[in-house]
């Protein structure tokens, strides 16, 4: 009888551990960005459409057709400038970028890295190569991450099914 009780207890514990493992590995991760909850079971573009802080970046991606490219490619890191980041640009610079499709695509592409880089993968002084072949330098100051010493990464590790998004406070110009 004691062996039977021991067997049942071990079975219950084993099933409990297995259930917990399945729950934690199957549950979508979430992060708040731009007033919305971003989840790892949605692609990056879908997550960005829910952010109230990335409308200009999303509009630019859409106007250039880069949205389709991002949706068709897997495994990338996206540094997404906020609407405030675009507002910080001098008027002449912003107009030059948005009225020149080639320059707009070049600027947007400077925010995309092939492969997934979470904050755990970043290191001070690291260089990331954008899809344009240009480098972004990563630095860490006062426990904050920066790109090219100018753009602060304000929200890290926004999960999505095909990539990771990091929100930045400055548009990167190359």
CATH class, named Mainly Beta
**Terminal Cα separation, in Å?**
75 Å
Tally of individual domains: 1
CATH architecture: Roll
CATH evolutionary superfamily: FAS1 domain
What topology does this entry show?
Elements: H1 2-26, E1 30-33, E2 36-39, H2 44-49, H3 55-64, H4 66-72, E3 76-81, H5 83-87, H6 91-98, H7 101-109, E4 112-114, E5 127-129, E6 135-141, E7 144-147, E8 151-159, E9 163-168
Parallel strand pairs: 3-9
Antiparallel strand pairs: 1-2, 3-4, 5-6, 6-7, 7-8, 8-9
Helix pairs in contact: 3-7
Descriptive notes:
This protein is α+β, with helices and mostly antiparallel strands and 174 residues long. The protein has a single domain, classed as FAS1 domain. It has 7 helices and 9 strands. The chain has helices spanning 2-26, 44-49, 55-64, 66-72, 83-87, 91-98, 101-109; strands spanning 30-33, 36-39, 76-81, 112-114, 127-129, 135-141, 144-147, 151-159, 163-168. It has a 7-stranded mixed β-sheet with strand order 4-3-9-8-7-6-5. A two-stranded antiparallel ribbon has the order 1-2. Helix 3 (55-64) crosses helix 7. The chain is elongated and about 80 Å long. The termini are far apart. The model is unreliable at 22-26 (pLDDT under 50).
Give a short overview:
With 174 residues, the protein is of the alpha+beta class. It has 7 helices and 9 strands.
Keywords:
elongated; FAS1 domain; seven-stranded mixed β-sheet; 174 residues; two-stranded antiparallel ribbon; alpha+beta
